[in-house]
Amino acid sequence: MRLVGVTIDVSDATRAENELRGKVELIERQQEVIRVLATPIIEVWDGVLTMPIVGLIDTARTAEIMDSLLQAVTQTRARYAILDLTGVEVVDTGTASHLIKMIQAIRLLGAEGILTGIHPSIAQTVVALGVDLSQVAVFAKLRDALKHCLRAARASTRPASAG
Questions:
Q1: Are 39 and 33 within 8 A, CB to CB?
Q2: How far is CA 66 from CA 11, 35, 152, in A?
Q3: Which long-range CB contacts under 8 A does 146-149 form with residues at least 24 apart?
Q4: What is the rounded CA–CA span in Å between residue 63 and residue 131?
Q5: What is the DSSP letter of 43?
Q6: Number of Cβ within a 10 Å radius of residue 127
Q7: What is the Cα–Cα distance from 36 to 40, expressed in whole angstroms?
Q8: How many CB atoms lie within 10 A of CB 1?
Q9: Which residue among 22, 42, 118, 159 is the one 20 to 30 A from 95 at the CA level?
């Protein structure tokens, strides 16, 4: 009768597993930083937020954008939220629809959602959807949207004239 003994050194496997776990955690932290940097929310002055959006936006990214923007509107009690699409050249119909829903959600929070920097291809997509933008402030440039916010803020702080 023979007896065979086998020993397995699992310290290398454990060490490799711990290294892998650490790398996965680092990647997840980096992805979160990239998400935040890719869609920064800037409070340009009291009550006015702007979110410059750059690159490709799909339905998943639009959902993230909506969540963070609505949170920021609530936290800062913003009266205006400007979505600057200057850095976005193309959106699909689902994403365009989601952007419009975002503007509506901003309105439900008591703020005005404003769109700026819409490229011609995005305009075509929105028109093809048959979306009514008559209730949405849309400006060619961010500067024009900011001027709109200033005028509206001044108008709302003026005392009513005694007629």
A1: no
A2: 46, 13, 24
A3: 146/44, 146/48, 146/50, 146/82, 148/114, 149/47, 149/48, 149/79, 149/80, 149/82, 149/114
A4: 19
A5: E
A6: 11
A7: 6
A8: 2
A9: 42
